[in-house]
Amino acid sequence: MSRDVATLLEALPYIREFHGKTVVIKYGGAAMTDESLREEFAKDVVLLKFIGMNPVIVHGGGAAITDHMERLGLEVDFVDGLRVTDAETVEVAKMVLVGKVNKDIVRRINRYGQPAVGICGDDGALFRVSRQLPGGVDIGFVGQVDHVNIDLLHHIQDDYIPVIASVGADRDGQSYNVNADNAAGAVARALGAYKTIFMTDVEGWLRDPDDPTSLVRQADVAEVEQSIDAVGGGMLPKLRACLDAIRGGAGFAHIIDGRLPHSLLLELFTDAGIGTKIFP
Amino acid sequence: MSRDVATLLEALPYIREFHGKTVVIKYGGAAMTDESLREEFAKDVVLLKFIGMNPVIVHGGGAAITDHMERLGLEVDFVDGLRVTDAETVEVAKMVLVGKVNKDIVRRINRYGQPAVGICGDDGALFRVSRQLPGGVDIGFVGQVDHVNIDLLHHIQDDYIPVIASVGADRDGQSYNVNADNAAGAVARALGAYKTIFMTDVEGWLRDPDDPTSLVRQADVAEVEQSIDAVGGGMLPKLRACLDAIRGGAGFAHIIDGRLPHSLLLELFTDAGIGTKIFP
Amino acid sequence: MSRDVATLLEALPYIREFHGKTVVIKYGGAAMTDESLREEFAKDVVLLKFIGMNPVIVHGGGAAITDHMERLGLEVDFVDGLRVTDAETVEVAKMVLVGKVNKDIVRRINRYGQPAVGICGDDGALFRVSRQLPGGVDIGFVGQVDHVNIDLLHHIQDDYIPVIASVGADRDGQSYNVNADNAAGAVARALGAYKTIFMTDVEGWLRDPDDPTSLVRQADVAEVEQSIDAVGGGMLPKLRACLDAIRGGAGFAHIIDGRLPHSLLLELFTDAGIGTKIFP
Amino acid sequence: MSRDVATLLEALPYIREFHGKTVVIKYGGAAMTDESLREEFAKDVVLLKFIGMNPVIVHGGGAAITDHMERLGLEVDFVDGLRVTDAETVEVAKMVLVGKVNKDIVRRINRYGQPAVGICGDDGALFRVSRQLPGGVDIGFVGQVDHVNIDLLHHIQDDYIPVIASVGADRDGQSYNVNADNAAGAVARALGAYKTIFMTDVEGWLRDPDDPTSLVRQADVAEVEQSIDAVGGGMLPKLRACLDAIRGGAGFAHIIDGRLPHSLLLELFTDAGIGTKIFP
Amino acid sequence: MSRDVATLLEALPYIREFHGKTVVIKYGGAAMTDESLREEFAKDVVLLKFIGMNPVIVHGGGAAITDHMERLGLEVDFVDGLRVTDAETVEVAKMVLVGKVNKDIVRRINRYGQPAVGICGDDGALFRVSRQLPGGVDIGFVGQVDHVNIDLLHHIQDDYIPVIASVGADRDGQSYNVNADNAAGAVARALGAYKTIFMTDVEGWLRDPDDPTSLVRQADVAEVEQSIDAVGGGMLPKLRACLDAIRGGAGFAHIIDGRLPHSLLLELFTDAGIGTKIFP
Amino acid sequence: MSRDVATLLEALPYIREFHGKTVVIKYGGAAMTDESLREEFAKDVVLLKFIGMNPVIVHGGGAAITDHMERLGLEVDFVDGLRVTDAETVEVAKMVLVGKVNKDIVRRINRYGQPAVGICGDDGALFRVSRQLPGGVDIGFVGQVDHVNIDLLHHIQDDYIPVIASVGADRDGQSYNVNADNAAGAVARALGAYKTIFMTDVEGWLRDPDDPTSLVRQADVAEVEQSIDAVGGGMLPKLRACLDAIRGGAGFAHIIDGRLPHSLLLELFTDAGIGTKIFP
User: Fold this and answer.
1) Would the pTM count as exceeding 0.90?
2) Which chain B residues have a beta carbon less than 8 Å from that of C2?
């Protein structure tokens, strides 16, 4: 028994370091689809809030969107890992993200004793989005976050855990799907977050995506910039979002393996940490 | 020209009366489906906010839910005007209400210069819902609001227009569809609203639903109670919600014809008002 | 009926623009002496307050002072439009302005539902005044406002409409009569007012005072500076006050015809506006 | 020298007792007309404010009103010590009280380093007045204070010394002259003042007005009630105001001889006190 | 590693329960004299503060006082476990408690990252003490706390950990030594503490002080009252203090074995808890 | 009698000047050891607080420390007026200063009606101290204040009189004795005190310590800097502290004769003042 309370005390230096700090968590992958990991994630986030941190969650919901589109008989297409998104697709994506995925997260967090509030880029005009043209190709209503209006977050983040679905609208009120990594980086930048944590389905940033031993344990911004041209797949938007957040004034960024139970706590409360750490 | 500014002044006694007052608006029917009426509604609400009222919007979205269910090939069934709701239906209803209808309202309001925040019964644990058994019949995940936790509204209503989708969860986190009239009444009661306004697709409360000349222009709570057994259809939940709100401490309730352009302003800013007024 | 509420909505863009803004109104001329215009003015000001603006009223009271002096058998004399003011005159002027004109305005405004507070340059040491020597001529206790201490205004302007009589004292406590245009400009400058509106008995700034068609509809500060040497009469202190306010950081200045009913609302809530607009 | 600082310390128990307390001072008589006493009064009040009390001054201005009426050739008439007041008289009284007497007090206080704000019953709707009919006789626009709205005082009394001229209006906006003793009692009652001090031109309450040795040094409310039928002249409204204040929850009332230099400080800061003390 | 973060989560229900709650800790015995336990205690308290509790520490310092008295060649005498205390003894006791023991605790806590403030019953007039006459015997300047003025605690407890030495003065300013159990109970009562924890050098409340297996694991107030006549030694003031606190509105009281490392955390963060729990 | 209240008014200009100002008082010498002067000092400080100043007291306690060391049979040694301080000495000094001298001052002040709070450099990490090496000689645990963390003072100084004992700890938590003049200067500098007053047992700064007629009535910082090499004894740390405070942004410094009754009031409330005044 005495063994266990000692563990609490080992966390003390970390609790002290993170007290009052904002941590933006890009939530996704297995941690969002596996039932058991979802429960653990909700508990972990509530714990962070109770011990004095300000967690802010940003999520997408790729798999759930694809599922629902297939149920509707809609075609699913990707270019460079970005979903080709016509008007119908953006509407479906928004319904699924905001009306299902987001509220599922909110309800789970509520149950563990800290109330959450689920919002998207429309609420309080949180995001201003513009059309993204990857490599000059128009893939429809896929946007990037140009501006984050943190006023609504200031109203709620002391007493609630904000859960942000990565959709938003442009100046004309047209809705866009937004890559959640991009949204998380923009939110972290706007809040000057102490940490930005990207939960993925890989060990971290692998120099060779097929070789788990090629994990980069840490890198500074300059190193990321030098290497980024060689990066592809889903890691590219994550690294770009890390750069965006850190250059804009946020602190450390982490890419961690969300498939591990309590990956968030492992990263925050152990000396070794897990995954890849990127520092300014 | 001088004619027009005089009109502004005619509104002065109403502006004075309503200043700082909370008005809960059950939004629905044609005002929510007709493109032009939707725009007018958003403008009207923004005007109310600018002149010092606190509008709070509660909405359902029956037609949009039915549409989407049909696209998914799901069966649509009603008992006593309440949708029979299995697990799949409640999930679809929530997606449509929260992820589409709610955010459409939010975006329109944002555009006219007062930011809105769209929430549902899950956010900040706003609603606690229990299963509704109309006439003892189990029609699935259709709930009624047992408790409204207005804490989140207090955080946002000074600076934002809250837009509430009428879904929520019970103590176990199970989601329910909630009749929007019921939800509006519960919110009005919890806030002690000065006015609760139900926007409908009829002239108001008609003694004989087929006879527009049978409109009840005003009635007090006792009169409604005496007459309610004879009421059926969609008017029944509205009248029940009026009673619920007024008995719980809210002020006047109004059932108005949302098919008229600017029905909200007509009710609030003209001597005659429109529709049915119910007073304590 | 529907026609009238539409008028309310036409005002929406102006209400949005002026929300939370401070408007300093130099009140005088027919609008202050004609019984019907006085009532309308009070209503207009109350309306502005209700819809979220912060009106601040500055007034003189030339006609009433002259009346009372004549009743007392005192000699009335003017140099360049400025009253020659001996010790007895300044005392009478102050009594009439502060004890009669000011409180009449306050009581009228109170009646329409927004409380007003009448003060003069002495209260809270609002004005520090020094002797004015127009063209080097000593015309007695006629002063100009050297400094406005807005502390008292900050205490009251959120909840009351300040009504300021244009008299004040110098460092030694000697009272002075102050031209109300000068006082209004100084107050607008100190508050960084969004608009300063001078209510006059002419159409606006007329190039040729005898030719109503010579109205200057708008001019920037540079144009006013170039033309001011040619200006005389009562328009001169108004234009000087406009320059003073705008150079000191206030926004637009307007010279309007207070003889028109609701001239204030016409200027603020119609596209065309009325009179002369001076911009930075 | 050491002798003098010792005096400061003798005041310590009184300073302690009065710290943070509200003292309503009915200012009048010689203390208001004698130049030297006026200066001393201003200094005394400023001292009270600096050492942590909240002085609130209420004043009339009988002599100055009579003077001005005579200059205007108006008839001056009294019934039972109350001025017969037609419409013209009330206007003149208000001008003199508010525009001259009140601002003179304000300016003097300002000069000693604590800003004052001069208001009357119109400002912030401070007084609601109704017609007074002494012995059923209509003597015109002479009113009594029915209600004091202390909201404006709450806005200013922490940072300013309120100076209140005893005039006000009825519900219809008609102005009335108000006996300053009556007004002071009403203000003290509304504020729950710790002390109410009436400055007079006699030694205090004399059982026999012609015999200075008949001074009542102290009395409780019951004793005043028993004796009041035998009281006449200017002492009557003062005793009535004392009763009104104390019955309404204010603390001690004092009737002191304002002809003595620093009578206020003598009452507050010496063991013996001066004049008559009335306690609950 | 994953094992350790799981321990953190096991604490989550307790963290949730105790969040924002005040816990008064009577600190004494081995936990205050053993160097290693002292360090652990400081860490434990800092952890409690970081995770959102409000720990308030009350301590005596028996052993250190005796040591110093012996160094000074003063006689040390006890009656019923209470130190016989002449004027010289109370002065020495105060010096040792306030000037040495208290500041040692403060400095240790500071080092772990949450600032502490050491006070005694004199500061902010925290304690009003009266002479204690155990069994009618006068043992000198030994007092009991009659009143706790928690105003100073309200000024500091949000941002600092208060550390209170159990000495105080009576109305005349005479200092007294106060039994720390008594002081802790009085502080817990005044604050309405959620928990009061007495750290001792025994396993808890033992029915038979010589038989560790006679430990009372829990008891309600009625049971303690029935048994208290049979209790002697140092346990008596602890049980009395428990009764005092709980009757006065505090929540649970605990008597725990401070000789165990992290006894505080074991009590708070394990299901079993340790020692004796007394509930209302 | 009237004579006495006039004295109060003579203090008015000073009360005005000092209102809201912070005055750091180095308390020591006869004013701290003579029973009658101690009482007078407490009264004086309470008076300053009541009339709106913020007195902050810093004290040492040389004589009491020496007394207690002799009682313990410890050797007392001085180098250049600084006590040679081994580990045992610093512990004794701290006990005496914090546990006896400090609380005596606190209790006396409390009695006159303004609550005091006694703290030392440990509380709220108020002082960070480093070892002082006068002339390069190691005299043990004698430190100087490198940094003052005024956060705790901000929490308490509005409502309490802070009384600071001049001991503190270095970064490692090692305690040091600190010269009280040095501590007072550091506190005054950190607070930007309006006045720093050093109470001594001499008339002020004497050019020739043996010649009372050589008193320097006033000097600016430059003059002190030029003369300081010739200064020795206890005056040297006082003058250094004056320079430290003033260079760091504090206002005037005064060295006064604490043997005079009410020396503090004499300095503050008479034109002549007493002792030496040093200005920027």
Assistant:
1) yes
2) 260-262, 266
